[in-house]
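ARCHIVE CARD
CATEGORY: sequence design from structure
SOURCE FIELD: tokenized fold
FIELD CONTENT:
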């Protein structure tokens, strides 16, 4: 998404909402180097308002995740892995809010790897218009 922000147009604002602890925000920002505002929702009230739930342990930490961690292990990447400090079962989503503040489009993820493509997000944004 970062390399395609120029396709959004001047009237579009992008923000990320995370439930990271405010004390961890500087580290989060340093690790992710995001070119847009990051809002912190430690009590996840925004997540609840948008209907974002927690996934099951099997869905989040099932075979797909085990396979990926095995790949990381084989590639010698275990030094990069850190113990999670946040709720790994919290599901995310992607939303487009219209200029009048109403929800114009939403995507509710069913797992940590479930996200719309950048092309889909841009198409949906174009449908909503400025």
């Amino acid at each position: 998404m970062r390399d395609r922000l120029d396709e959004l147009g001047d009237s579009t604002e992008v923000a990320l909402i995370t439930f990271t602890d405010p004390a961890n925000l500087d580290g989060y920002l340093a690790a992710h180097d995001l070119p847009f505002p990051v809002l912190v929702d430690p009590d996840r009230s925004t997540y609840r308002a948008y209907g974002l739930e927690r996934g099951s342990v099997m869905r989040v930490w099932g075979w797909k995740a085990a396979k990926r961690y095995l790949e990381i292990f084989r590639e010698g990447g275990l030094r990069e892995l850190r113990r999670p400090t946040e709720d790994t079962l919290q599901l995310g989503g992607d939303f487009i809010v219209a200029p009048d503040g109403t929800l114009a489009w939403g995507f509710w993820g069913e797992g940590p790897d479930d996200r719309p493509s950048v092309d889909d997000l841009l198409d949906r944004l174009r449908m909503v218009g400025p």
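CARD ANNOTATION: The first helix runs from residue 25 to 32. The radius of gyration is 16 Å.
SHELF: design records, drawer C
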